[in-house]
Amino acid sequence: MSMAVPPVGIQVPGTFPSLALNVLVLACVFLLTKILHNLYFHPLSKYPGPKIFAATSLASSYYLFRGTRAYRISELHNRYGPIVRFGPNELSYVNEQAWKDIYGSQKASTGIQLKKKARVTPMSYLSLFPNPSDEAHNRLRKVVAPGFSEKGIRDRETLLQQHVTSLILKLSEKSGNPVDLIWWMDCTASDNLGDMVFGQPFGALETETFPEVLHQADASLKELAFNILYEQYLLGKIWTKIRERFTPRRVNSFFPSFVAENLQKRGKRLAEQGGNGAEVNDINAGTSRGLQPEEIAVVSVDLMIAGADTIITALSLQALSHEIRSTFESESDMTLAALQNLKYLNAVLNESLRLFPAAPETTRRVTNPGGNVICGDLIPTAVGVYYWAAGHNASSWHKVESFIPERWLGDDKFKDDARGVVNHFAVGPRNCVGQTLALAQMRLFVARLIWNFDMELCDESKKWWGMRTFVLTYAKPPLMMKLKPVVRFLFAKTLAFGVLYADLLT
Ligand code: HEM
């Protein structure tokens, strides 16, 4: 009996659906096998964590997308301990040794540094922050670092102080009315960054205009979050590759023209100075040694993005006010060097950064082929310390959710605190190059604000801590405060004598 073979090109009813069905069944089998492998046969399957996180990347992506992953991972650490598996290929650590093994220089031990993943940045791959090549990173870092050293920042003290003085003057004009302190501090920090990077402030304080570059920096960080999300899935990876193929160097059109414009203005100012460079003492003056123009541009963007998201601390502490107002006789005594020695102020900053780290997520690293040894185990995957989880880990901190600066001052009640589980500025060759500047700025802001004003939190901001949401950094809501100028004893005394004198004359 002969079978009727359909002619080529003629569709037989039922063939297409059954093909689709076969593909679907195959996909399900593949997925199921993958999930089973992830759960029971994967090298990370021995690490604790919820099964739903270990099975696929979906759960982790869901929380990243909602902007609450750092919170969730913190909860998981409180439940499962210092190492948590929160994705098929990702481990999070709250552990002092993990800092050394993941971020520290590996030269002394294995000699193989953990890697950063290459990422699309607003300008190109060549920049400092996401540079996957240790050699290229090292070269850029060596040129940038001197400007951010203790000496580099001390040399800029006059400018730093000037910006804070402008802030104080602006706030004095508004005293008694509610002001959004975050908005004003962001403006001050960005003017300072403008000075540091391009030799001129952006005029944010003067014109009372929030600089566009801060919005754009925020947008870039959000884009980075999405890239991290995409790269966990095959389709996402393909999409990222396609985007990189067609827009390899210019993802965000704002930054290239912003940098070009500012460098041009800078060049013009230099030319007006006769080209001797005396006026423009900025990072670009230092970076021009040994860098290509394109590298200068991308490093400038790195600094704008990394430095843009600034610092907010609990400003209304009695003990801090006492330390600041009783240590100094006048505001001009508040030099960077003097503020560095204020124990309580430093403890307040440490405690603020513990509870409210500038970046609540992690900067993950990828182990080398063959794995790296982390906390005694050979790990073949992506790893990181989550800043939020480390600061909020109940087994590491006594009274974990309370703001207690005394824990940084040797108070006996907190002797068992594991202070080494947090490193606000990371450790190792890729730690924060801007930390001296960040600390100097924070000390100046806090000390001079407290010196000048009594501060009262407005009702609408009383739940400020509860309002935050974040992707990689925070979406900070306004922090509304009323500032009242401090009536100084000396000032009050002069006033009293004035009144007395006037009385005597009448
Ligand atoms: C409270 C404020 C700040 C905190 C907590 C902070 C924290 C950090 C951390 C944890 C890293 C390491 C990232 C990694 O592991 O990949 C980092 C890197 C970096 N930070 Fe900061 N930062 C702050 C302010 C600043 C400021 C003001 C600047 C300068 C304008 C800056 C510039 C940078 C740069 C350029 C990098 C990359 C360094 C490299 O890859 O070599 N940061 N920061």
Automatic annotation (TrEMBL):
Segments crossing the lipid bilayer: none
MF annotations from Gene Ontology: heme binding; iron ion binding; monooxygenase activity; oxidoreductase activity, acting on paired donors, with incorporation or reduction of molecular oxygen
Binding site for heme: C432
Domain of life: Eukaryota
CDD domains: CYP60B-like
Keyword DNA-binding: no
Keyword vocabulary terms for this entry: Heme, Iron, Metal-binding, Monooxygenase, Oxidoreductase
Cofactor(s) for this UniProt protein: heme
Annotated family: Belongs to the cytochrome P450 family.
Name under which the protein is recorded: Cytochrome P450
Species whose genome carries this gene: Cudoniella acicularis
